[in-house]
Amino acid sequence: MDRVRDSDGLVGVGADDPEDHIRKWLDTKGLKRLLETDFAVVSSTSVIPMGRRGWVRLINSYKLNRVASWLVPRSRLDALKERMGLGYSIIAIGRRKLGQRKS
Q1: pLDDT band at residue 4, thresholds of 50, 70 and 90?
Q2: Residues 42/95, Cβ–Cβ less than 8 Å
Q3: CA distances from 72 to 13, 68, 69, 75 (A)
Q4: What share of the chain is helix, strand, coil (3-state, %, to 5)?
Q5: What is the pLDDT of residues 6-51, one digit of tens each?
Q6: Max CA pair span of the chain
Q7: Distance CA 51, CA 78 (A)
Q8: Segment (H or E) for 67
Q9: How is the chain split into domains, by residue range?
Q10: CA 46, 5, 9, 24: dihedral to nearest 10 degrees?
């Protein structure tokens, strides 16, 4: 597996992705839709706010966050970004629907 750098300097995986890699990334809505067939989604959030492309690049700007941290603590800024779904990983908590058998 070769690692390559794209135009932004981000390290990625070459064109020959291993079969184990996820090819369709889900957003929060997509994950909830996937889970709702068997679970009642209680809550969802994301963790590790990051991103260096598009408007997320602005939100995660070091300079902007440093100025904002004068007014709001960094931990609260990160928590807000996570609740907004801007984190690297999505976490959902669900309750199995009644009548669903265990697999």
Answers
A1: very low
A2: yes
A3: 37, 6, 5, 8
A4: 30, 25, 45
A5: 455 554 545 566 666 666 778 888 999 999 999 999 998 888 877 7
A6: 52
A7: 13
A8: helix 62-68
A9: 3-96
A10: -30
Q: Is 49 exposed, middle or buried (0-12, 13-18, 19+ CB in 10 A)?
A: buried
Question: Residue 103, Cβ neighbours under 10 Å: how many?
Answer: 4
How far CA 10 is from CA of 5, 7, 85, in Å, comes to 5, 7, 21
Q: How far is CA 75 from CA 29, 68, 72, in A?
A: 25, 11, 8
SS3 1: coil
